[in-house]
Protein backbone atom coordinates (compact mmCIF):
# COMPACT_ATOMS: atom_id res chain seq x y z
CA UNK A 1 0.00 0.00 0.00
CA UNK A 2 1.26 3.46 -0.80
CA UNK A 3 0.32 5.77 2.04
CA UNK A 4 0.62 9.51 1.51
CA UNK A 5 0.58 12.22 4.15
CA UNK A 6 0.10 15.95 4.59
CA UNK A 7 2.93 18.41 5.18
CA UNK A 8 1.66 18.98 8.70
CA UNK A 9 1.67 15.28 9.52
CA UNK A 10 5.24 14.98 8.27
CA UNK A 11 6.37 18.00 10.27
CA UNK A 12 4.75 16.62 13.41
CA UNK A 13 6.45 13.29 12.90
CA UNK A 14 9.82 15.01 12.33
CA UNK A 15 9.58 17.12 15.48
CA UNK A 16 10.52 14.56 18.12
CA UNK A 17 13.41 13.31 16.01
CA UNK A 18 14.74 16.82 15.43
CA UNK A 19 14.37 17.56 19.14
CA UNK A 20 16.41 14.44 19.87
CA UNK A 21 19.13 15.74 17.56
CA UNK A 22 18.62 13.20 14.76
CA UNK A 23 20.36 14.69 11.69
CA UNK A 24 17.39 14.41 9.36
CA UNK A 25 18.65 16.80 6.72
CA UNK A 26 21.99 15.03 6.46
CA UNK A 27 20.21 11.72 6.01
CA UNK A 28 17.74 13.16 3.56
CA UNK A 29 20.35 14.89 1.44
CA UNK A 30 22.74 11.93 1.45
CA UNK A 31 19.92 9.68 0.27
CA UNK A 32 19.05 12.29 -2.37
CA UNK A 33 22.62 12.26 -3.67
CA UNK A 34 22.70 8.47 -3.89
CA UNK A 35 19.32 8.42 -5.65
CA UNK A 36 20.66 10.85 -8.25
CA UNK A 37 23.80 8.76 -8.73
CA UNK A 38 21.70 5.60 -9.08
CA UNK A 39 19.46 7.24 -11.63
CA UNK A 40 22.49 8.33 -13.67
CA UNK A 41 23.90 4.82 -13.64
CA UNK A 42 20.49 3.40 -14.63
CA UNK A 43 20.64 5.74 -17.61
CA UNK A 44 24.16 4.52 -18.36
CA UNK A 45 25.64 7.93 -17.64
CA UNK A 46 28.83 8.16 -15.58
CA UNK A 47 28.45 9.77 -12.16
CA UNK A 48 31.96 11.15 -12.11
CA UNK A 49 32.05 14.23 -14.28
CA UNK A 50 28.24 14.51 -14.49
CA UNK A 51 27.23 18.17 -14.74
CA UNK A 52 24.59 18.86 -12.11
CA UNK A 53 22.68 22.11 -11.63
CA UNK A 54 21.08 22.76 -8.25
CA UNK A 55 18.07 25.08 -8.27
CA UNK A 56 18.14 26.48 -4.78
CA UNK A 57 15.33 28.32 -2.96
CA UNK A 58 15.40 30.04 0.38
CA UNK A 59 14.31 27.22 2.70
CA UNK A 60 15.35 23.80 3.93
CA UNK A 61 14.36 22.33 0.57
CA UNK A 62 17.23 24.33 -0.92
CA UNK A 63 19.32 23.11 2.02
CA UNK A 64 18.65 19.51 1.00
CA UNK A 65 19.70 20.29 -2.57
CA UNK A 66 22.92 22.02 -1.45
CA UNK A 67 23.96 19.22 0.89
CA UNK A 68 23.21 16.62 -1.78
CA UNK A 69 25.23 18.74 -4.23
CA UNK A 70 28.15 18.65 -1.81
CA UNK A 71 28.01 14.83 -1.67
CA UNK A 72 27.82 14.63 -5.45
CA UNK A 73 30.73 17.03 -5.87
CA UNK A 74 32.77 14.75 -3.60
CA UNK A 75 31.88 11.85 -5.90
CA UNK A 76 33.34 13.75 -8.84
CA UNK A 77 30.28 15.49 -10.27
CA UNK A 78 30.69 19.02 -11.60
CA UNK A 79 28.04 20.75 -9.50
CA UNK A 80 26.75 24.28 -9.84
CA UNK A 81 24.24 25.90 -7.54
CA UNK A 82 21.90 28.55 -8.91
CA UNK A 83 20.55 30.56 -5.99
CA UNK A 84 17.07 31.85 -6.73
CA UNK A 85 16.66 33.47 -3.33
CA UNK A 86 18.96 36.19 -1.90
CA UNK A 87 22.13 34.53 -0.61
CA UNK A 88 21.46 35.79 2.91
CA UNK A 89 18.25 33.72 3.00
CA UNK A 90 19.74 30.53 1.60
CA UNK A 91 20.33 27.63 4.01
CA UNK A 92 23.71 28.65 5.57
CA UNK A 93 25.01 25.19 6.49
CA UNK A 94 24.02 23.81 3.08
CA UNK A 95 25.72 26.71 1.34
CA UNK A 96 28.98 26.35 3.21
CA UNK A 97 28.98 22.53 2.80
CA UNK A 98 28.48 22.99 -0.92
CA UNK A 99 31.24 25.59 -1.20
CA UNK A 100 33.63 23.42 0.82
CA UNK A 101 32.99 20.52 -1.55
CA UNK A 102 33.78 22.66 -4.57
CA UNK A 103 30.29 23.47 -5.76
CA UNK A 104 30.29 26.63 -7.81
CA UNK A 105 27.63 28.93 -6.39
CA UNK A 106 26.04 31.79 -8.23
CA UNK A 107 23.23 34.17 -7.61
CA UNK A 108 20.75 34.12 -10.47
CA UNK A 109 18.85 37.18 -11.56
CA UNK A 110 16.55 36.85 -14.57
CA UNK A 111 15.56 33.81 -16.54
CA UNK A 112 17.97 34.15 -19.46
CA UNK A 113 21.09 33.46 -17.43
CA UNK A 114 19.38 30.58 -15.68
CA UNK A 115 18.19 28.97 -18.89
CA UNK A 116 21.61 29.08 -20.51
CA UNK A 117 23.14 27.65 -17.35
CA UNK A 118 20.54 24.90 -17.41
CA UNK A 119 21.23 24.14 -21.06
CA UNK A 120 24.82 23.20 -20.23
CA UNK A 121 23.81 20.91 -17.36
CA UNK A 122 22.08 17.61 -18.13
CA UNK A 123 20.95 17.11 -14.52
CA UNK A 124 18.66 19.60 -12.76
CA UNK A 125 17.86 19.31 -9.08
CA UNK A 126 14.72 21.19 -8.10
CA UNK A 127 15.24 22.44 -4.54
CA UNK A 128 13.18 25.61 -4.80
CA UNK A 129 10.37 24.82 -2.37
CA UNK A 130 9.16 21.76 -0.49
CA UNK A 131 6.58 21.26 2.23
CA UNK A 132 7.08 24.81 3.49
CA UNK A 133 5.58 26.43 0.39
CA UNK A 134 2.11 27.89 0.37
CA UNK A 135 0.15 28.75 -2.76
CA UNK A 136 1.53 28.83 -6.28
CA UNK A 137 5.17 29.79 -6.81
CA UNK A 138 5.66 33.54 -6.64
CA UNK A 139 7.98 35.74 -8.62
CA UNK A 140 10.85 35.24 -9.39
CA UNK A 141 10.55 31.46 -8.89
CA UNK A 142 7.41 31.28 -11.05
CA UNK A 143 9.12 32.89 -14.05
CA UNK A 144 12.23 30.76 -13.55
CA UNK A 145 10.18 27.55 -13.47
CA UNK A 146 8.19 28.56 -16.54
CA UNK A 147 11.38 29.28 -18.49
CA UNK A 148 12.99 26.00 -17.37
CA UNK A 149 9.86 24.01 -18.26
CA UNK A 150 9.92 25.47 -21.78
CA UNK A 151 13.62 24.75 -22.10
CA UNK A 152 13.17 21.16 -20.92
CA UNK A 153 10.42 20.66 -23.51
CA UNK A 154 12.70 22.01 -26.26
CA UNK A 155 15.55 19.74 -25.15
CA UNK A 156 13.14 16.79 -25.12
CA UNK A 157 12.09 17.60 -28.68
CA UNK A 158 15.68 17.51 -29.91
CA UNK A 159 16.32 14.23 -28.14
CA UNK A 160 18.49 15.39 -25.22
CA UNK A 161 16.14 15.88 -22.31
CA UNK A 162 17.63 16.83 -18.95
CA UNK A 163 17.23 14.50 -15.99
CA UNK A 164 15.05 16.48 -13.58
CA UNK A 165 15.05 15.40 -9.96
CA UNK A 166 12.64 17.07 -7.55
CA UNK A 167 13.64 17.38 -3.92
CA UNK A 168 10.76 16.22 -1.70
CA UNK A 169 8.10 17.48 -4.17
CA UNK A 170 8.14 19.22 -7.54
CA UNK A 171 8.28 22.82 -6.32
CA UNK A 172 4.93 24.60 -6.49
CA UNK A 173 2.49 21.66 -6.29
CA UNK A 174 -0.28 21.70 -3.70
CA UNK A 175 1.60 19.47 -1.25
CA UNK A 176 -1.56 18.28 0.53
CA UNK A 177 -4.14 18.23 -2.25
CA UNK A 178 -2.27 17.66 -5.51
CA UNK A 179 -3.48 20.96 -6.94
CA UNK A 180 -1.46 23.04 -9.40
CA UNK A 181 -1.87 26.60 -8.17
CA UNK A 182 0.92 27.88 -10.45
CA UNK A 183 3.79 26.72 -12.65
CA UNK A 184 5.61 23.49 -11.78
CA UNK A 185 8.70 21.93 -13.35
CA UNK A 186 7.78 18.32 -14.22
CA UNK A 187 10.26 15.86 -12.71
CA UNK A 188 11.51 12.48 -13.88
CA UNK A 189 12.20 11.44 -10.32
CA UNK A 190 11.00 12.83 -7.00
CA UNK A 191 13.04 11.91 -3.95
CA UNK A 192 10.67 12.53 -1.08
CA UNK A 193 11.73 12.78 2.54
CA UNK A 194 10.28 10.63 5.31
CA UNK A 195 6.93 9.86 3.66
CA UNK A 196 5.11 10.22 0.36
CA UNK A 197 3.31 13.57 0.35
CA UNK A 198 -0.37 13.45 -0.65
CA UNK A 199 0.23 15.85 -3.56
CA UNK A 200 2.60 13.33 -5.15
CA UNK A 201 -0.20 10.80 -5.64
CA UNK A 202 -3.27 13.03 -6.08
CA UNK A 203 -4.28 14.44 -9.46
CA UNK A 204 -3.62 16.72 -11.24
CA UNK A 205 -0.10 17.15 -9.74
CA UNK A 206 0.79 13.45 -9.44
CA UNK A 207 2.03 12.88 -13.01
CA UNK A 208 4.49 15.78 -12.61
CA UNK A 209 6.37 13.90 -9.88
CA UNK A 210 7.64 11.16 -12.20
CA UNK A 211 8.93 8.13 -10.37
CA UNK A 212 8.81 8.48 -6.59
CA UNK A 213 11.53 7.32 -4.20
CA UNK A 214 10.93 7.62 -0.47
CA UNK A 215 13.81 8.30 1.90
CA UNK A 216 13.16 6.43 5.13
CA UNK A 217 13.75 8.81 8.03
CA UNK A 218 12.14 6.56 10.64
CA UNK A 219 9.08 8.81 11.01
CA UNK A 220 6.07 7.55 12.98
CA UNK A 221 3.07 8.66 10.96
CA UNK A 222 -0.64 8.46 11.73
CA UNK A 223 -3.54 7.80 9.35
CA UNK A 224 -2.79 8.55 5.72
CA UNK A 225 -4.32 11.44 3.81
CA UNK A 226 -4.45 9.26 0.68
CA UNK A 227 -3.69 5.64 -0.13
CA UNK A 228 -3.11 3.62 -3.28
CA UNK A 229 -3.58 -0.12 -3.46
CA UNK A 230 -0.70 -2.05 -4.92
CA UNK A 231 -0.69 -5.54 -6.38
CA UNK A 232 -0.18 -7.33 -3.05
CA UNK A 233 -3.01 -5.39 -1.40
CA UNK A 234 -5.36 -6.15 -4.27
CA UNK A 235 -4.48 -9.84 -4.17
CA UNK A 236 -4.93 -10.02 -0.39
CA UNK A 237 -8.34 -8.35 -0.59
CA UNK A 238 -9.73 -10.32 -3.51
CA UNK A 239 -12.81 -12.39 -2.55
CA UNK A 240 -11.75 -15.87 -3.57
CA UNK A 241 -14.64 -18.36 -3.25
CA UNK A 242 -14.25 -21.16 -0.74
CA UNK A 243 -15.24 -24.79 -1.22
CA UNK A 244 -18.40 -24.31 0.86
CA UNK A 245 -19.60 -21.38 -1.25
CA UNK A 246 -22.56 -21.57 -3.59
CA UNK A 247 -23.88 -18.91 -5.91
CA UNK A 248 -26.04 -17.25 -3.26
CA UNK A 249 -23.28 -17.06 -0.66
CA UNK A 250 -20.96 -15.54 -3.26
CA UNK A 251 -23.54 -12.88 -3.95
CA UNK A 252 -26.16 -11.85 -6.47
CA UNK A 253 -25.86 -8.54 -8.25
CA UNK A 254 -28.90 -6.66 -9.48
CA UNK A 255 -28.33 -4.50 -12.56
CA UNK A 256 -30.82 -1.85 -13.65
CA UNK A 257 -29.10 -0.30 -16.64
CA UNK A 258 -29.58 0.53 -20.30
CA UNK A 259 -32.38 2.11 -22.27
CA UNK A 260 -33.69 2.10 -25.81
CA UNK A 261 -31.13 4.83 -26.57
CA UNK A 262 -28.21 3.15 -24.76
CA UNK A 263 -28.82 -0.62 -24.68
CA UNK A 264 -25.05 -1.24 -24.90
CA UNK A 265 -24.50 0.24 -21.45
CA UNK A 266 -26.49 -2.63 -19.94
CA UNK A 267 -24.51 -5.20 -21.91
CA UNK A 268 -21.19 -3.67 -20.86
CA UNK A 269 -22.17 -3.33 -17.20
CA UNK A 270 -23.11 -6.99 -17.18
CA UNK A 271 -19.89 -7.85 -19.03
CA UNK A 272 -17.83 -6.15 -16.29
CA UNK A 273 -19.90 -7.78 -13.56
CA UNK A 274 -19.65 -11.32 -14.95
CA UNK A 275 -15.92 -11.03 -15.65
CA UNK A 276 -15.35 -10.21 -11.97
CA UNK A 277 -16.93 -13.42 -10.72
CA UNK A 278 -20.35 -12.91 -9.11
CA UNK A 279 -22.56 -15.75 -7.90
CA UNK A 280 -25.24 -14.47 -10.25
CA UNK A 281 -26.38 -11.36 -12.12
CA UNK A 282 -30.04 -10.37 -12.29
CA UNK A 283 -31.03 -7.87 -14.94
CA UNK A 284 -34.03 -5.56 -14.69
CA UNK A 285 -34.96 -3.38 -17.63
CA UNK A 286 -37.02 -2.98 -20.78
CA UNK A 287 -37.67 -6.21 -22.71
CA UNK A 288 -35.65 -5.07 -25.73
CA UNK A 289 -32.60 -4.29 -23.58
CA UNK A 290 -33.08 -7.45 -21.58
CA UNK A 291 -33.06 -9.41 -24.85
CA UNK A 292 -29.78 -7.76 -25.84
CA UNK A 293 -28.23 -8.58 -22.45
CA UNK A 294 -29.38 -12.20 -22.53
CA UNK A 295 -28.34 -12.52 -26.15
CA UNK A 296 -24.83 -11.54 -25.20
CA UNK A 297 -24.80 -13.29 -21.79
CA UNK A 298 -27.14 -16.23 -21.36
CA UNK A 299 -25.79 -16.61 -17.78
CA UNK A 300 -27.87 -13.60 -16.73
CA UNK A 301 -31.23 -14.08 -15.02
CA UNK A 302 -33.85 -11.55 -16.05
CA UNK A 303 -36.28 -10.30 -13.43
CA UNK A 304 -36.38 -9.45 -9.76
CA UNK A 305 -35.30 -11.47 -6.75
CA UNK A 306 -33.04 -11.15 -3.75
CA UNK A 307 -29.72 -9.38 -4.38
CA UNK A 308 -26.64 -8.43 -2.34
CA UNK A 309 -25.92 -5.23 -4.28
CA UNK A 310 -27.36 -3.07 -7.02
CA UNK A 311 -25.89 -1.16 -9.92
CA UNK A 312 -28.40 1.52 -10.86
CA UNK A 313 -28.16 3.81 -13.82
CA UNK A 314 -25.59 3.06 -16.55
CA UNK A 315 -27.19 4.05 -19.85
CA UNK A 316 -30.34 5.28 -18.12
CA UNK A 317 -31.81 8.48 -19.49
CA UNK A 318 -31.92 10.98 -16.61
CA UNK A 319 -35.06 12.53 -18.14
CA UNK A 320 -36.94 9.22 -18.17
CA UNK A 321 -38.97 9.77 -15.02
CA UNK A 322 -40.71 6.42 -15.13
CA UNK A 323 -37.40 4.57 -15.26
CA UNK A 324 -36.00 6.77 -12.48
CA UNK A 325 -38.99 5.89 -10.32
CA UNK A 326 -38.17 2.21 -10.80
CA UNK A 327 -34.58 2.87 -9.82
CA UNK A 328 -35.78 4.78 -6.75
CA UNK A 329 -37.87 1.75 -5.75
CA UNK A 330 -34.83 -0.56 -5.99
CA UNK A 331 -32.86 1.98 -3.99
CA UNK A 332 -35.47 2.17 -1.25
CA UNK A 333 -35.75 -1.61 -0.99
CA UNK A 334 -31.95 -1.82 -0.82
CA UNK A 335 -31.79 0.81 1.92
CA UNK A 336 -34.35 -1.13 3.92
CA UNK A 337 -32.37 -4.34 3.55
CA UNK A 338 -29.01 -2.60 4.08
CA UNK A 339 -27.84 -3.73 0.65
CA UNK A 340 -25.20 -1.60 -1.14
CA UNK A 341 -26.24 0.51 -4.10
CA UNK A 342 -23.97 1.87 -6.81
CA UNK A 343 -25.33 4.88 -8.67
CA UNK A 344 -23.75 5.47 -12.05
CA UNK A 345 -24.47 7.78 -15.01
CA UNK A 346 -28.24 8.47 -15.31
CA UNK A 347 -28.82 7.03 -11.83
CA UNK A 348 -26.75 9.83 -10.30
CA UNK A 349 -29.66 12.22 -10.84
CA UNK A 350 -31.42 10.48 -7.93
CA UNK A 351 -28.92 12.26 -5.68
CA UNK A 352 -29.34 15.68 -7.29
CA UNK A 353 -31.81 17.00 -4.78
CA UNK A 354 -30.18 19.05 -2.10
CA UNK A 355 -31.58 17.30 0.93
CA UNK A 356 -31.25 13.74 -0.40
CA UNK A 357 -28.75 11.71 1.63
CA UNK A 358 -27.78 8.13 0.95
CA UNK A 359 -29.84 6.01 3.31
CA UNK A 360 -27.96 2.77 2.96
CA UNK A 361 -24.42 1.82 1.94
CA UNK A 362 -23.93 3.75 -1.28
CA UNK A 363 -21.25 4.41 -3.89
CA UNK A 364 -21.59 6.99 -6.64
CA UNK A 365 -19.35 6.79 -9.71
CA UNK A 366 -19.34 10.14 -11.51
CA UNK A 367 -16.74 11.50 -13.91
CA UNK A 368 -15.73 15.13 -13.42
CA UNK A 369 -18.62 16.50 -15.49
CA UNK A 370 -21.19 14.42 -13.62
CA UNK A 371 -19.73 15.42 -10.26
CA UNK A 372 -19.87 19.10 -11.22
CA UNK A 373 -23.53 18.64 -12.23
CA UNK A 374 -24.33 16.89 -8.96
CA UNK A 375 -22.64 19.51 -6.80
CA UNK A 376 -24.25 22.32 -8.78
CA UNK A 377 -27.69 20.74 -8.50
CA UNK A 378 -27.17 20.57 -4.74
CA UNK A 379 -26.40 24.27 -4.53
CA UNK A 380 -22.58 24.24 -4.79
CA UNK A 381 -22.06 25.92 -8.14
CA UNK A 382 -19.05 24.12 -9.62
CA UNK A 383 -17.78 23.82 -13.19
CA UNK A 384 -16.17 20.68 -14.59
CA UNK A 385 -12.81 22.46 -14.88
CA UNK A 386 -12.88 23.19 -11.17
CA UNK A 387 -13.42 19.51 -10.40
CA UNK A 388 -10.54 18.63 -12.73
CA UNK A 389 -8.31 21.16 -10.94
CA UNK A 390 -9.03 19.74 -7.48
CA UNK A 391 -10.62 16.30 -7.81
CA UNK A 392 -9.80 15.07 -4.31
CA UNK A 393 -11.35 18.09 -2.61
CA UNK A 394 -14.51 17.90 -4.72
CA UNK A 395 -14.88 14.16 -4.22
CA UNK A 396 -14.65 14.65 -0.47
CA UNK A 397 -17.16 17.50 -0.58
CA UNK A 398 -19.63 15.34 -2.51
CA UNK A 399 -19.10 12.47 -0.08
CA UNK A 400 -19.93 14.74 2.84
CA UNK A 401 -22.98 16.22 1.13
CA UNK A 402 -24.47 12.93 -0.04
CA UNK A 403 -23.24 10.52 2.61
CA UNK A 404 -22.09 8.23 -0.20
CA UNK A 405 -18.66 6.91 -1.05
CA UNK A 406 -17.62 8.90 -4.11
CA UNK A 407 -15.61 7.23 -6.87
CA UNK A 408 -14.54 10.10 -9.12
CA UNK A 409 -13.33 8.73 -12.46
CA UNK A 410 -10.45 10.19 -14.40
CA UNK A 411 -6.90 9.42 -15.50
CA UNK A 412 -6.30 8.98 -11.80
CA UNK A 413 -9.47 7.93 -10.02
CA UNK A 414 -10.11 9.34 -6.56
CA UNK A 415 -12.27 7.58 -3.99
CA UNK A 416 -13.55 9.46 -0.95
CA UNK A 417 -15.64 8.12 1.91
CA UNK A 418 -17.71 10.65 3.91
CA UNK A 419 -15.38 10.47 6.89
CA UNK A 420 -13.12 7.61 6.05
CA UNK A 421 -10.20 6.80 3.83
CA UNK A 422 -9.35 8.40 0.55
CA UNK A 423 -7.83 6.35 -2.24
CA UNK A 424 -6.27 7.31 -5.51
CA UNK A 425 -5.61 4.72 -8.21
CA UNK A 426 -3.80 5.53 -11.43
CA UNK A 427 -2.95 2.21 -13.05
CA UNK A 428 -5.10 2.78 -16.15
CA UNK A 429 -4.08 4.12 -19.55
CA UNK A 430 -5.41 6.95 -21.67
CA UNK A 431 -6.73 4.28 -24.06
CA UNK A 432 -9.39 3.57 -21.41
CA UNK A 433 -10.98 6.96 -22.03
CA UNK A 434 -13.56 5.47 -24.38
CA UNK A 435 -17.33 5.14 -24.30
CA UNK A 436 -18.56 2.28 -22.19
CA UNK A 437 -15.43 1.92 -20.05
CA UNK A 438 -17.31 3.40 -17.09
CA UNK A 439 -20.17 0.90 -17.55
CA UNK A 440 -17.68 -1.96 -17.29
CA UNK A 441 -16.29 -0.40 -14.10
CA UNK A 442 -19.78 -0.14 -12.60
CA UNK A 443 -20.22 -3.87 -13.20
CA UNK A 444 -16.86 -4.74 -11.64
CA UNK A 445 -17.68 -2.63 -8.62
CA UNK A 446 -21.13 -4.18 -8.38
CA UNK A 447 -19.75 -7.71 -8.22
CA UNK A 448 -17.16 -6.77 -5.60
CA UNK A 449 -19.85 -5.02 -3.57
CA UNK A 450 -21.98 -8.19 -3.58
CA UNK A 451 -19.03 -10.13 -2.21
CA UNK A 452 -18.48 -7.55 0.55
CA UNK A 453 -22.19 -7.64 1.38
CA UNK A 454 -22.21 -11.45 1.47
CA UNK A 455 -19.35 -11.37 3.98
CA UNK A 456 -21.17 -8.78 6.07
CA UNK A 457 -24.42 -10.78 5.95
CA UNK A 458 -22.57 -13.90 7.07
CA UNK A 459 -21.38 -11.91 10.08
CA UNK A 460 -24.91 -10.49 10.70
CA UNK A 461 -23.76 -6.94 10.24
CA UNK A 462 -23.96 -4.13 7.69
CA UNK A 463 -21.25 -3.36 5.22
CA UNK A 464 -19.49 -0.14 6.21
CA UNK A 465 -18.58 2.92 4.14
CA UNK A 466 -14.95 2.10 4.82
CA UNK A 467 -15.39 -1.38 3.34
CA UNK A 468 -17.16 0.09 0.32
CA UNK A 469 -14.27 2.52 -0.21
CA UNK A 470 -11.87 -0.45 -0.03
CA UNK A 471 -14.00 -2.31 -2.57
CA UNK A 472 -14.15 0.74 -4.84
CA UNK A 473 -10.35 1.02 -4.84
CA UNK A 474 -10.06 -2.68 -5.63
CA UNK A 475 -12.51 -2.33 -8.53
CA UNK A 476 -10.60 0.62 -9.98
CA UNK A 477 -7.30 -1.23 -9.57
CA UNK A 478 -8.35 -4.31 -11.56
CA UNK A 479 -10.28 -2.26 -14.11
CA UNK A 480 -7.13 -0.18 -14.72
CA UNK A 481 -4.97 -3.28 -14.95
CA UNK A 482 -7.42 -4.87 -17.37
CA UNK A 483 -7.32 -1.71 -19.49
CA UNK A 484 -3.53 -1.93 -19.64
CA UNK A 485 -3.69 -5.53 -20.72
CA UNK A 486 -6.37 -4.76 -23.32
CA UNK A 487 -4.12 -1.96 -24.65
CA UNK A 488 -1.11 -4.28 -24.86
CA UNK A 489 0.73 -2.55 -22.02
CA UNK A 490 2.68 -4.47 -19.38
CA UNK A 491 1.49 -3.69 -15.82
CA UNK A 492 4.57 -1.71 -14.82
CA UNK A 493 5.67 -0.10 -18.10
CA UNK A 494 6.70 3.54 -17.98
CA UNK A 495 4.19 6.03 -19.42
CA UNK A 496 4.65 6.70 -23.13
CA UNK A 497 5.68 10.29 -22.30
CA UNK A 498 8.58 8.91 -20.24
CA UNK A 499 9.79 6.62 -23.01
CA UNK A 500 7.52 3.62 -22.32
CA UNK A 501 5.44 1.76 -24.93
CA UNK A 502 2.42 3.52 -26.41
CA UNK A 503 0.10 0.52 -26.42
CA UNK A 504 -2.84 0.31 -28.78
CA UNK A 505 -6.55 1.18 -28.92
CA UNK A 506 -9.11 -0.81 -27.01
CA UNK A 507 -12.87 -0.91 -26.80
CA UNK A 508 -14.72 -1.15 -23.52
CA UNK A 509 -15.66 -4.77 -24.12
CA UNK A 510 -11.95 -5.66 -24.38
CA UNK A 511 -11.48 -4.42 -20.82
CA UNK A 512 -14.14 -6.80 -19.57
CA UNK A 513 -12.62 -9.62 -21.62
CA UNK A 514 -9.19 -8.96 -20.08
CA UNK A 515 -10.44 -9.06 -16.49
CA UNK A 516 -10.40 -12.81 -15.71
CA UNK A 517 -6.77 -13.15 -16.79
CA UNK A 518 -5.76 -10.04 -14.84
CA UNK A 519 -7.49 -11.37 -11.72
CA UNK A 520 -5.94 -14.79 -12.22
CA UNK A 521 -2.48 -13.28 -12.57
CA UNK A 522 -3.04 -11.17 -9.48
CA UNK A 523 -4.00 -14.20 -7.43
CA UNK A 524 -1.03 -16.14 -8.77
N1 LIG B 1 12.80 19.83 9.07
C1 LIG B 1 13.90 19.20 8.66
O1 LIG B 1 14.93 19.12 9.29
C2 LIG B 1 13.88 18.53 7.38
C3 LIG B 1 13.45 19.25 6.27
N2 LIG B 1 13.59 18.74 5.05
C4 LIG B 1 13.43 19.59 3.87
O2 LIG B 1 12.92 20.85 4.22
C5 LIG B 1 11.81 21.18 3.41
C6 LIG B 1 10.92 22.11 4.14
O3 LIG B 1 11.70 23.24 4.39
P1 LIG B 1 11.11 24.65 4.82
O4 LIG B 1 10.13 24.47 5.87
O5 LIG B 1 12.28 25.53 5.08
O6 LIG B 1 10.34 25.15 3.57
P2 LIG B 1 10.65 25.09 2.01
O7 LIG B 1 12.10 25.05 1.73
O8 LIG B 1 9.81 24.04 1.46
O9 LIG B 1 10.04 26.46 1.53
C7 LIG B 1 10.30 27.64 2.21
C8 LIG B 1 10.92 28.63 1.27
O10 LIG B 1 10.09 28.83 0.16
C9 LIG B 1 9.63 30.17 0.10
N3 LIG B 1 8.26 30.10 -0.35
C10 LIG B 1 7.19 29.61 0.31
N4 LIG B 1 6.10 29.67 -0.46
C11 LIG B 1 6.50 30.20 -1.65
C12 LIG B 1 5.84 30.51 -2.87
N5 LIG B 1 4.53 30.30 -3.01
N6 LIG B 1 6.54 31.05 -3.89
C13 LIG B 1 7.87 31.26 -3.76
N7 LIG B 1 8.56 31.00 -2.62
C14 LIG B 1 7.88 30.47 -1.59
C15 LIG B 1 9.79 30.71 1.49
O11 LIG B 1 9.96 32.10 1.46
C16 LIG B 1 11.06 29.97 1.93
O12 LIG B 1 12.19 30.59 1.38
C17 LIG B 1 11.22 19.85 3.05
O13 LIG B 1 10.43 19.92 1.90
C18 LIG B 1 12.47 19.01 2.88
O14 LIG B 1 12.98 19.19 1.56
C19 LIG B 1 14.33 17.50 4.90
O15 LIG B 1 15.66 17.84 4.85
C20 LIG B 1 14.07 16.54 6.01
C21 LIG B 1 14.38 17.16 7.30
N1 LIG C 1 -6.90 9.91 -19.47
C1 LIG C 1 -7.31 8.79 -18.86
N2 LIG C 1 -6.42 7.86 -18.48
C2 LIG C 1 -6.82 6.71 -17.90
N3 LIG C 1 -8.11 6.41 -17.64
C3 LIG C 1 -9.04 7.30 -17.99
C4 LIG C 1 -8.70 8.54 -18.60
N4 LIG C 1 -9.84 9.22 -18.82
C5 LIG C 1 -10.85 8.45 -18.36
N5 LIG C 1 -10.37 7.28 -17.86
C6 LIG C 1 -11.16 6.18 -17.30
O1 LIG C 1 -12.02 5.71 -18.31
C7 LIG C 1 -13.31 5.37 -17.78
C8 LIG C 1 -14.34 6.25 -18.48
O2 LIG C 1 -15.56 6.16 -17.84
P1 LIG C 1 -16.81 7.09 -18.19
O3 LIG C 1 -16.36 8.49 -18.37
O4 LIG C 1 -17.85 6.81 -17.21
O5 LIG C 1 -17.22 6.54 -19.60
P2 LIG C 1 -18.63 5.93 -20.08
O6 LIG C 1 -19.68 6.71 -19.37
O7 LIG C 1 -18.66 6.15 -21.55
O8 LIG C 1 -18.63 4.50 -19.72
C9 LIG C 1 -13.19 5.60 -16.28
O9 LIG C 1 -12.84 4.40 -15.65
C10 LIG C 1 -12.06 6.61 -16.16
O10 LIG C 1 -11.40 6.54 -14.92
K1 LIG D 1 11.34 20.89 -4.54
From TrEMBL:
Lineage: superkingdom: Bacteria
Family according to the record: Belongs to the NnrE/AIBP family. In the N-terminal section; belongs to the NnrE/AIBP family.
Annotated protein name in UniProt: Bifunctional NAD(P)H-hydrate repair enzyme
Keyword Kinase in record: yes
Enzyme Commission no: 4.2.1.136, 5.1.99.6
UniProt cross-references to PROSITE patterns, sorted A to Z: YJEF_C_2, YJEF_C_3, YJEF_N
Cofactor binding, note field: Binds 1 potassium ion per subunit.
Lineage: Bacteria, Bacillati, Actinomycetota, Actinomycetes, Micrococcales
Domain YjeF N-terminal: 6-225
Catalytic activity, reaction form: (6R)-NADPHX = (6S)-NADPHX; (6S)-NADPHX + ADP = AMP + phosphate + NADPH + H(+); (6R)-NADHX = (6S)-NADHX; (6S)-NADHX + ADP = AMP + phosphate + NADH + H(+)
GO molecular function terms listed in the Swiss-Prot or TrEMBL record: ADP-dependent NAD(P)H-hydrate dehydratase activity; ATP binding; kinase activity; metal ion binding; NAD(P)HX epimerase activity
Positions of (6S)-NADPHX binding: 60-64, 130-136, 168, 265, 315, 367, 439
Keyword Lyase: yes
Provenance organism: Bogoriella caseilytica
Swiss-Prot/TrEMBL GO biological process terms: metabolite repair; nicotinamide nucleotide metabolic process
